[in-house]
Amino acid sequence: MLYNPFGKDQVKISRVGLGCWQLGADWGEVDPTVAKAILGASVDNGVTFFDTADVYGGGRSESLIGEFLAESKLQDEIFVATKLGRFGDLYPDNYTAAGVRERVEESLVRLKTDCLDLVQLHCIPTEVMRQDEIWEILETLVSEGKIARFGASVESMEEALLCIEKAPALTSLQIIFNIFRQKPIRKLFDTAKAKQVGIIARVPLASGLLTGKFSIDTSFEETDHRNYNKDGNAFNVGETFAGLPYEKGVELADKLKAEVPEGMSFAQMALRWILDYDAVSVVIPGATRVEQAKANAAIADLPQLGDELHQTLRTFYKHEVRDHIRGPY
């Protein structure tokens, strides 16, 4: 595993983390025993960064993490990044000090801790980010010791750059970044590095498209966001299949299979591609099986992709992918 300084205070985290949205059951049901086994396998393979949110399963993901860390006595070893802003009565325009504080207190209980390592605004409206109040609320919570750091999970480059401008104390930005979503390379990375803002890369496998295992006939459970949100009917379409229409995404993934280096899987190539950018502090693939968690962690030990492959994937994005992306970007 590789470990990286994260944000302004230089705390060390693993460059491969675990995205815990899947543990909230929005990717199909995951048994709690299996969920804890996934957390354990990730830790055993060097992962020290878990990303979750209060809204994942209505607190289920946070609770499972809290129970796992307490049972394994790993609270001081694992960095837990959570999010608020889409759960309870905050969204879309009720981001009061009392409301934010209540969400933080609930996360503290579920995660069984006295101080949250990182709280991220969870894709809240842009107009709320433009106001000073939300940032002042977070700074107050830091001063009180309720949260150690704050960041933001955003949908677009406009929002990412706005957060950096509005909040000098910002620790991190979480963005959609993968082979199908390459805009941050030119629009954000240099600024983030200059300001010591860590980048958390989410949706790294484009909801599974970049595993190369899906076909036009693949079906998903009714409770899986890849079913109910494939066209953005529940939340931002970019969170599902990176904003690509499913059929187009399968077609594009099939075209890329010929580029996978010998000895790597498609998913490993896609994850290694992200880690090749030093602006990225951590990539957070999810897992619904222990084997997936182990395979994800192992990509940190793979060699970097060559310059020629990087150029091929950049050209592919510009000419084959970019015009098909839907949603804020």
From TrEMBL:
It comes from the Bacteria. Residues 16-315 form the NADP-dependent oxidoreductase domain. Transmembrane segments: none annotated. This is Aldo/keto reductase. SUPFAM superfamilies: NAD(P)-linked oxidoreductase. Gene3D superfamilies: NADP-dependent oxidoreductase domain (3.20.20.100).
